[in-house]
Structures are given as C-alpha cells and as structure tokens.
Specification:
By secondary structure, the protein is mainly alpha-helical. Helices cover about 40% and strands about 0% of the residues. The protein contains 4 helices and no strands. The protein is elongated.
C-alpha cells in the first residue's frame, strides 16, 4: 500500500479539458422536444390537460382487479355497486 495522495477528480486535467470542450455529445441531443430538461410551459390562463385513470371506460372486473382482489362474483358485484354509487370517484381512489 502506498501513501500516495490522490488529486480530487474535479481538479484533474481530464475534467478541465472536458469542461472546456463545447462540442455536443450526439447521444445527449434530444432535438429540443419536451423532456425533463426542456419543459413545455403553458400560456397565462391556459388550462393543463390532465389525464386520469377514470378517462377510460372501466368494467367492474377491472376495478376489482385494480383493487388487488380476485375477480370472483362477489368482488365483481361489490365493484359494480361501487362504480354505480361513486362513478369516476371509485376509479380515482384506486387508480389516480
């Protein structure tokens, strides 16, 4: 084992060369589209389009399974009653 003192990585010449290099890396170019680095902003007063789990039709069997229950006749009937009573709120509680 040596008692060599290592220079911090950020102080190496390789890092300095990389910082000075302004060439874009092809693999990192996204084309300027919407992503986590280039978000799309709404105009003032514009409402966002929000999609929820209730935006599509649900069968009682689907709701029973989404709640983690087996699609037995009893569970399907409970899910049917829940959908009939609460409508989209029944789905939103399970699949927001």
């Amino acid at each position: 084992m040596t008692d060599e003192i290592r220079q911090p990585l950020e102080e190496t010449q390789e890092v300095a060369d990389a910082v000075e290099d302004d060439v874009a890396v092809e693999a990192f170019i996204t084309g300027g589209g919407k992503d986590s680095d280039t978000p799309e902003f709404l105009a003032p007063g514009e409402e966002p389009v929000i999609r929820t789990g209730a935006d599509q039709p649900w069968d009682p069997e689907d709701l029973a399974e989404a709640e983690g229950k087996d699609p037995t006749p009893e569970n399907i009937e409970k899910a049917r009653q829940e959908l009939e009573r609460d409508g989209a709120a029944a789905i939103e509680r399970t699949v927001p």
